Amino acid sequence: MKVTELEVSVQRRPPSPDPIRDALQTLGGAGSVQVAVHTDEGVSGTGEVGFGRIAGAPDALGALVEHELRPLVLGSDPAWVRQTHEAMLRETEYHGSFGLAMFGIAAIDTALWDCLGKALGVPCWKLWGRVHERIPAYAMVGWLNYPDGEFARICAEAVEQGFHAVKVKVGYPTLAEDVRRIEVARRALGDDVRLMVDANQSLTTAEALRRGRAFQELGCYWWEEPIPADDLDGYAELADALDIPLATGENLYTRHDFARFLRRGAVDIIQPDLRRGGGPTALLDVGHLAHAFRIPYASHGGGPVQLNLMACLPNALYLETGRISADSPMKLEDGTVNVPEGPGFSW
Ligand SMILES: [Mg+2]
C-alpha cells in the first residue's frame, strides 16, 4: 500500500466573543488543520490539529505541511509509519522539530495510523496490544473567566453526569483567591470527588511551592503546570519538596523532553499532548517510557486517539475531557469511559 495523495485543509474560525481563559492565555479559538492521506488501495486516513489561539497559525501550519512534509509522505507505505515519522523529524531538524513542525508531524502521524487501522479493518489499539477495558476520565470544568455561580453549576453538572474527578484552573493573583475558588468547587462537588488544580505555567518556583503546600492541605489530587514547562530544575525542586503529585507534559515536545523530566524525577504524572508530543507514534513511546519509571499517564485533551493509546498503556491514569454531551459515542459509567471500537481512530 502506498500513499498517493496528501490533502491539507485549513479551517479558520473567527475569534469567540466570549473566550475561555486560564492563568496564562486567553483562548478565543483560531481554527484547525486537517490532513488526509489517500492510498493506491482506496483506503484513506485523517488527522487533525486545532489551535486555541493565534489567528494565523492554521495557515502557517497548512503551508508547512504542504511544502515541507507532504513530499516525505507521498509514496510511503502507512505500515512504515515509524520510518516516515523519523524522516519528518530529520527533515524539520534544520529549523527545529518542535512548535508548528511538530503539530504537522502529529497530524500526519495520526492520519497514517488511522489509515493503517482502516486498511486492516481494526481499531489502532488492536495494533498496539490492549490492557484496559475502560479508562477513568475527569472533567475539566473550571476556566478562570467563569463567574462563581456558573462555575459552581458546571462543577455540579459534572458530578451529576457521573464524573468522580474534575479539574479547575487556579493561578489567580493571590493564593487567597485560589483557595476561595477551590472552596467554591468543593461545595459544589461534595467530599467524594477528586479535585485537580492547574496554574498553566504562571507562577515562580517559590510561589508554586507556597501554593502547592496549601493545595496539599486542601486535599487536591494533583498540582498541574505550576511553573513554566521548560523549567526542569524548578520542577525537580518542587517534586522534592511537595507531597502533592506534580503533573506536567502538555507543553513538552518529543520523547526526549519527557526523558529529561523522568530521569530527573521532576514529574509525578505525565500529561502528553497529541500535537506537541508528535502524534500517536511518539506518545506511545512516551507512555511506555513513563511506565518504565513507574509514572502514570494522564492525557492532555481527550478524543479517540488518546483513548486508543491509553487502552494500551498499563500506566494510564485519567483521560481529560469536558462534560459529555448526550449524543457523544463516549459513555461515562462509574467514572470511566469506553474505548472506540471502530477501525483506525473511528468510533
Ligand atoms: Mg493544563
List the helices and strands and how they pair.
Blueprint: E1 3-12, E2 20-21, E3 26-27, E4 31-39, E5 44-51, H1 57-73, H2 81-92, H3 100-120, H4 125-128, E6 135-142, H5 148-161, E7 165-169, H6 175-189, E8 194-198, H7 205-217, E9 223-224, H8 232-241, E10 246-248, H9 254-264, E11 269-270, H10 274-277, H11 280-292, E12 297-298, H12 304-310, E13 316-321, E14 332-333, E15 336-337
Parallel strand pairs: 6-7, 6-13, 7-8, 8-9, 9-10, 10-11, 12-13
Antiparallel strand pairs: 1-4, 2-3, 4-5, 6-15, 14-15
What does the model show?
Helices cover 41% and strands 20% of the residues. The model has no long low-confidence stretch (mean pLDDT 97). The protein is globular. With 347 residues, it is α/β, with parallel strands linked by helices. The protein folds into 2 domains: 3-120, Enolase-like, domain 1 (2-Layer Sandwich), CATH 3.30.390; 126-337, Alpha-Beta Barrel (TIM Barrel). It has 12 helices and 15 strands. The chain starts with a strand and ends in a 10-residue tail after the last strand. The strands form 3 sheets. Strands 6, 7, 8, 9, 10, 11, 12, 13, 14 and 15 form a 10-stranded mixed sheet that branches. Strands 1-4-5 form a 3-stranded antiparallel sheet. The structure holds magnesium ion.
